[in-house]
Fold this sequence. Notes:
Largest sheet: 9 strands, mixed
Shape: globular
CATH superfamily of the largest domain: Zn peptidases
CATH topology of the largest domain: Aminopeptidase
Oligomer: single chain
Amino acid sequence: MSIQKKNLAWEELLLSDREKQILKDYLAFLSEGKTERESWKILEQSAANAGFNPLSETKTFLTGQKVRLGVRNKAGILAIAGKRPLQEGFRLVAAHIDAPRLDLKPHPLYEDEGLAYLKTHYYGGIKKYQWTALPLAIHGVVVLADGQKREIVIGEDDDDPIFTINDLLPHLAKDQYDKKLREAIPGEGLNLLLGHIPAQREGDERVKSAILDILKEKYGMEEEDFVSSEFEIVPAGKARWAGIDKSFIAGYGQDDRICSFAAWKAIEEIESPEWTTVVLFADKEEIGSDSNTGMKARYLENFIAELLALQTGTYNGLMVRRSMANSKALSADVTAGFDPNFAEVMDKRNAAFLGRGVVICKYTGARGKAESNDANPEFLAEVRRIFNENKISWQTAELGKVDQGGGGTIAQFMAVYGMEVLDCGVGILSMHAPWEISSTADFVMLMRGYRSFLSSQ
């Protein structure tokens, strides 16, 4: 029997009542948290309800004390003080809450031959053809000229209209069929169909004018306000069970909200850990972790510095660096699940299989391990021991065949501090598609795995 087949998650999956409820809560999280702002808002409110207090209001950091920090409403960190001094290190699970999507351009609204559209710029790695002829919703915020911020969601309620991006009918698609798949739908062709009722007044672009009237009436928006907006185009509709046996979860953004939610539920159960326990939710992973909400920003380092100052009464840069270097982390991200329909791109001996539990990846990156963290075997052995002792079904994997492509995670940006880091998530089918598929068994094992790591001695 292959080592990859030794641990079947289903055989260890006697669900507690709490875990059954968490699965339902995860579906709601996917349905309601379709942007990084929405995801963090849900997580932060849940953390507040569980006793995680704002860092700005915290005066001490003693064993069992719970602290939270939001990062510009799009990322955040949670921590529970451990029994050991923070300078000895901490245990960290770090995930990301952004997902591939379509963003609006700064000047998106236009009219052409009586049809109004919004121009988009895709975010992250998508297959453009997957986003046509699909029910879509608009989620986001706009800051008006007077400074008011409006949160807008259109396309999720039953009475809401949905949006779509047109595709070419097959009757006239001769030239389209001859193009490479990546070229069949150009990026500049991802224009969101918005409306076509003209304004009841004279002038040019009467449909565009009517759209602006609606935006003004409902949201107080002028056309120029698009410049200070952050609107994301995402699939409309709720996450659902999939499969006749409800063994799968189908929903948008499971890369990487499945790891984010599992990490939250893992830390929610912990009270007085041996080591300070930290869970981080990052933004901008899908575009390289840049910006002041991405993992390249130093909010983790600054957060630890603040906690150390609370414990010791002073700031000491050397102590901060020692704490970071003494720490151990799981980079909580998904990997490609083995799909028999596309077996030719996978090394079957080193692939992630759905229903076989948590996936650990020694390295990610592309081809020759470019832009990856390459975990040390000593740390791999420690994580393996923790999972075995806690009866966590686990497997190892790479992201497909060596020369087929590849992808990265935030692991490398934690490793620069000297901490031990290992990629750890689950396999996903149809990754980066508008609807992704995960295994219910793998989700539960992931949550248990993160909890056992964060609680380890």
